Every structure is written in structure tokens, then in C-alpha cells.
Amino acid sequence: MTLNQLKYAIAISKENSLNDAAKKLFISQPSLTGAMHALEDEIGFDIFIRSKNGISLTVKGTEFIGYAKSVVEQYDILDAKFISKTNVKRHFSVSMQHYSFAVKAFIELVNEYGYDEYEFEVHETKTHEIISNVKNQKSELGILFLNDFNSKVLKKVISEAGLEFTPLFDCGIYVYISKTNPLAVQKLETGEPVTFDELDDYPNLSFDQGEYNSAYFAEEVMSTHQYKQIIRANDRATMLNLAKGVNGYTLCSGILCGDLNGGDYCALKLDTDEKMTIGYISRKASIMSEIALKYIEKISMYRDKVLA
Known about the structure:
This protein has twelve helices and twelve strands. By secondary structure, the chain is α/β, with parallel strands linked by helices.
């Protein structure tokens, strides 16, 4: 296995075409094809599926390309620092469930490190995609929650992907709701917790998980509760609009970031003893980058903002 073969495989995965990849690499298509066949013979599995419609990655190929990108990136950094003396930007990517505090920590990280040395990616996405992104090294870290209900299933999925979950802090369960909602007006005045019976008059808002739309992959706790009204959405902006427009609510950690979502929303304590554990997933036995450790440090600081 050579560095050039890894670069060739990455180029093909980007272009989804041997011909286009060969043009980008300034080599002939037969040479590229031969290099890929030699690499696949050496590693013992097919990286690509070849068809009349083009080139696509196999399941194992997707994982292989993730590792290949990491190797090539580290080589480029070594070359830039010690040989060519050029400035090659490093890359940091994190995937997360839809947590405003995780986005806020990412913003703080970007502002601290700047753009001279790093390129950044953030993916607010579905639970299964978070696991897939970290497995395939599209992201170095993934931020999600576990609780008594989903822990056994998700830990199995996480472990089978070659990853591990590290807890950061525990949270109670809160109802995230617009301050104009009649229930919010009432509870902000009395300070009493919200019961599920009181929530029956309002639609529950939850993030759609696509083909993995089971209770175990839900981003919201209490996912097995029989809600009388429910609306599924794909992004946080839509959730905020629904919370105002139809007096909807969602269940959350209670950590508020008013400077991102605005001050028109509040978190009301739900009348339950349930807890959720916020943490991160990473590759087993991996050595995390300096910037990943800094991000973990920043997100850990939000334990001080967990509501009692």
C-alpha cells in the first residue's frame, strides 16, 4: 500500500468516476484502474462498486476511505512542517445532535483558533449519521446523549462501529417552549414543574431520524411516551418556528443559549426523575487532536449551566 494509492482512492471517491479522477490526478485511466486493483488485492476487499452508472463506495470501502483521508492529511502536515515549509491547513469536524450549547462551544473554538491553520466542519444531524460520521472519520467527535432507555442499544451500535462513548455531564429533563405559550406563562409565574397531562394540549416536536426513526435513536428523552400530538422536523430553525407558531414543545437538557436562539424561549422542569447523560463518541484507542481536546474542554464547561 502506497501513499499515492491512498490519494488515488480518495480522488475516485470524490469524483465517483475513474475518468474524472484520472483527469484530476493527471494520470491515465488504465494506470489508475491498475493501481486500484492492486490496492484492493492487497487489502483483500473491494473499495468500490463499479457499474454502468459510475463508481460508488462499498461499506468497507467507506470505512477505508475515512482512514485513508486521515493518513494523507497527517502526511501533508508533516511534509508542510518539515520538508516543503508550506502552510497546510489542518481539519477539524464534529457531528452532533441538535444542541445549541454544542454549537456555541464550536463557535468559541473557531473564534479561538481562527482560520489560518484550520478548516472547520460542523454537522447537526441524525443520531445514526453521527455514529457513521465518526466511524468513517468524517468527524473526529460526535455529541449525543444516553439514558437508561437507549444506553444498552446505542452502546452496542457504537461499539460495533469501533467507537466508544465518554460521558461529560448529567442533566434533568426540561420542556423547551416559547415564552408566549399559555403553559409557559402559567409556569413561569408559579415555578411549578410541568406534567405530561398538561402537555397533552400541545404538539410534541421531535427531530426526524429518517430510516432509523426508532425510539432508541430519538434525540429526545421519553421517546416511548404516547404523545397525543406530534410533529417531526429536520432542523433546529424549524423547531423554533413551530414552538412559536403552533405552541409546540420539545424535551431537552435545559441548557439555554439565548444569544443563538434568542430570548423568546424558556426551559420548564418536567415532573420526572429521569436523567440524560451528555457525552461524546470517538474512535477506540485513538489519539485525539489538540483541537478536539479543546472542544471537549469547552463543551464540558456547560455542566455549570445545567439547571437544577
